[in-house]
User: What shape does this take?
Amino acid sequence: STIQGGIHREHIAGLREREAAAFRAARPKSEKSFGSGLTGFLGGVPMHWMNDWPTPFPIMAECAKGATITDIDGNVLADFCLGDTGSMFGHSPAPVVAAIRRQSERGLTYMLPTEDAAAVGRLLVETFGLPFWQIATTASDANRFALRVARAVTGRPKILVFNGCYHGAVDETFVRLKSGQPANKAGLAGEFRDLTENTEVVEFNDTPALERALSGGDVACVITEPVLTNSCMVLPEDGFHADLRRVTRAAGTLLLIDETHTISTARGGYTRRHGLEPDIFVLGKPVAGGVPASVWGLSAEVAERYERYLSTKEPGYSGIGTTLSANPLQFAAMRATLEKVMTAENYEHMEGLAVRLQARLLDVIAHHSLPWHVARVGARVEFICAPGPLRNGSEAYAAQAPELEAAIHVALVNRGVLIAPFHNMMLISPATTGGQVDRLVAAFGEVAAELAA
Ligand code: PMP
Assistant: This one.
């Protein structure tokens, strides 16, 4: 098609070209430093997705503080990407910095609990409501370990995912609906298994399909985000979470809620705000204020079943958890985050600005009669270059406008604003200011005017 997101492709390409040139002109030092890729790294980058940013080359970061990031050419950006939620509470929050500084003199990893660990145990129960927790290092790890427990206690082989989901490096979740049929997600490197053998996939917001998929009694666990955030944002329809809980319970299937992104909702996450009742709860990324850490919690019933299961096994079953997980640095940072950063006051500031951002972006879209919409879950706002709301993963996939989004992304960078790549996420932190929101809205307005012209 010659149109994407309501805009002519030629128009998009023109914007992309102009903005790429402006990006380069403002970053001579970065361009020289990055060269044709960083020597010594596969593909020229230490992480393959650093090459996936739509800028001509990655922004070479100098430092970040609060909601501001500065590159080595001295360009200052209002940061709405915030490390794709790893820094949801701002870069280097003061209480976390103090905790890291203190712990850094006292040993970084020793396979033993600390008094901070004792405090974190209490804080996790109090904040998220589930009674029994384990610590891991990434949300991917936490999901993998938790799914293993779900299989152990149910004795069932399968899991169920919603089409379009993302839960990190959890191989078995990479199943998609392709023309209505389950298939391995396209583009998986090195995957030699047919993942559909042990993973069911249905659309989000489709209770009858969910019921059918669970009716065989062989699904250990449904794993889902409360809101699908990893394609274009899909909100649950009224009653869907109640249906999901009712249907999983009836089928003897556990429910794992992955709050890694939706922790943008409130202290305690979407789960607490909306009274969800997961059997298993997972949170990674910002839980230690940017220090790699994740947590997974179990209901009393699942914990009890797991104890019983373990009592039937040979000792030394192992295989769950990794050496550096639950280290004292993680506990120090997590304690500071849970006690002093993930506060109701901070969330109030975050959500207030997010509501304002959403409303003002909608004004811009309406002003230019663009066929776009804006979705929000708490402090997380996303513009989508298609009409909404989106009901499921297939609609979210169809709503993507990769070239258009890439052009907008670079244009915003050139106007002093960084949003998340790939999914147009704009996250508000406790450090984000009204002035930064105004800057984003003004930049978005300029770009929209140019595209609509
Ligand atoms: N769960 C969700 C919902 C995510 O969005 C992500 C990452 N985007 C993960 C898990 C995995 O997190 P990590 O890459 O830190 O392991």
Observations:
- The longest strand covers residues 219-224.
- The first helix runs from residue 9 to 25.
